[in-house]
Amino acid sequence: MLYNYLPMKDRILQLFEDLEKLNNITTHVMQLKDEYFDKINKGEKIYEIRLCDEKRKKIRIGDDILFLKYSDFHKRIKVRVLHIYNHKSIEEVLNVYSLDALGFKGMSKPEVLDIITQIYPKTEIKKYGLVLIHIAKI
Questions:
Q1: Mean pLDDT for the chain?
Q2: Which residue ranges make up each domain of the chain?
Q3: Contact, 111 vs 95, CB < 8 A?
Q4: Rounded CA gap, 1 and 23, in Å?
Q5: CATH fit for domain 3-137, picks 3.90.230.10, 2.30.130.30, 3.30.2320.80, 3.40.50.970
Q6: Residue 26's pLDDT band (boundaries 50, 70, 90)?
Q7: Distance (Å, rounded) from C-alpha 53 to C-alpha 55?
Q8: Sign of torsion, CA 3 134 68 105?
Q9: Cα dist from 16 to 9, 74, 100, 133, whole Å
Q10: Structure confidence at residue 109 (pLDDT)
Q11: Assessment of whether the complete model's pTM goes beyond 0.90
Q12: What is the distance between the alpha carbons of residues 62 and 83, in angstroms, rounded to a whole number?
C-alpha cells in the first residue's frame, strides 16, 4: 500500500489495520452514556476519560474499543486506540486538553470537573489516577 498518498489520519488507520492483520488485536468492550456515545459517533469527542484501574491498564495503543450505547446495547461504535495518556487528577487533564476534544464543548472547567467527579469520585481518582484514551472511529 502506498501510505504516502493518504492523509495522515487515513495513513495511521491503514497502518493499524495492517497491524491487525498481522497480530491479534485486542478488543475492549465498554458502556458509554448516550450523550458521549453520540459525540464520538459524530466525531465531536476524540478522547475518552476512564479510571486507570486494572481493566484500563490492559488497553494498549492499536487495540480496539467497542462502545455500547447505554440505552441501547444494539447500537455500537468501534474505535481504535491511537494514544494513551495517564494523569493523576482531573484538574491536570482539564489544564492540558481541549474541553471540546473531551466532549464538553461550551462548558466551563468547573462544570466539567463536577460531571467527572459525579462519575468517578475524587477518592477513586486519587487511588487509581485517570487514563485519557485518544481514539479514532473505525
A1: 88
A2: 3-137
A3: no
A4: 18
A5: 2.30.130.30
A6: confident
A7: 6
A8: negative
A9: 11, 26, 26, 16
A10: 95
A11: no
A12: 8
